């Protein structure tokens, strides 16, 4: 599949007026392929906005290679900018203008046929509210108006920085549905966020960044499955006896107040059988599948500190996940 965004070894250090330096990007890699809804996740200050701003030519990188829609960025951005919609800064709209008038003006300024305005208003679900003044819009409606403005040009790629930030649950749900509809219409979507549960629901792929480095990337399910230890929560009346049976059978067991957590479970039916044969009836047997939240916290909290000397160098793993794969970092102990 064609890469819509490719970033390799991106570096950016911000230098303060008093000589201080802040490394925002430390040799960061990312690839987004056509058709993906790609989540770009990281804690506050991890480098997401700097990455997106650099990609769009708003910040100059110190080093690294980037391309958008197959063209080198930022040099060839003018050639592809008409195919990219981006909301990286919160757009400011005139409160006294209606949503429809705002979009008509933007369409005119951008040489977009005026008919597109009705199409994008419908796409973002604002058609019926288009004649209301923007100052009366909720934050969610303003965000959708911003997306509508980015859609005017019929982009192939939509880049959204924290689109769900500050929205209430209903607004987040609307934004999520909108992104899904856009992806179904064939638009590749890159969405940055620190709202993990949302990314898990919306996105099919994810790249996780921490302290300017990639710590994980891939299909969401694959990133999660790397952390799946085959754990089950087991509830029985006699916890000590059940723990003894399972431990003797070679399974790692952790005892909690009212349940056991058993790891390395291949077939859960085996647990029921073993305990049932001994007169212990299993009241609960639940798989403990990892969610993105716990994976994210583990990856971003500990891994980067352990990675030293991985500045871009030929044949040296630069990204934290590469270092994990090559055995430089053992995340197992973090789990
Ligand atoms: N213009 C700037 N001048 C100085 N430092 C900056 C500038 N922009 C970003 N930084 C610093 O670079 C680092 C990365 O910031 P960035 O905004 O890219 O992170 P982020 O992941 O987008 O965070 P958030 O989720 O809070 O928006 C932070 O330490 C930030 O303070």
UniProtKB/TrEMBL annotation:
Stated family: Belongs to the ABC transporter superfamily.
GO MF term (any one): ATP binding
Protein name stated in the entry: ABC transporter ATP-binding protein
Ranges where the record places region Disordered: 309-335
InterPro entries named in the record: AAA+_ATPase (IPR003593), ABC_transporter-like_ATP-bd (IPR003439), ABC_transporter-like_CS (IPR017871), P-loop_NTPase (IPR027417)
Matching Gene3D superfamilies: P-loop containing nucleotide triphosphate hydrolases
UniProt KW keywords: ATP-binding, Nucleotide-binding, Transport
Domain ABC transporter: 5-236
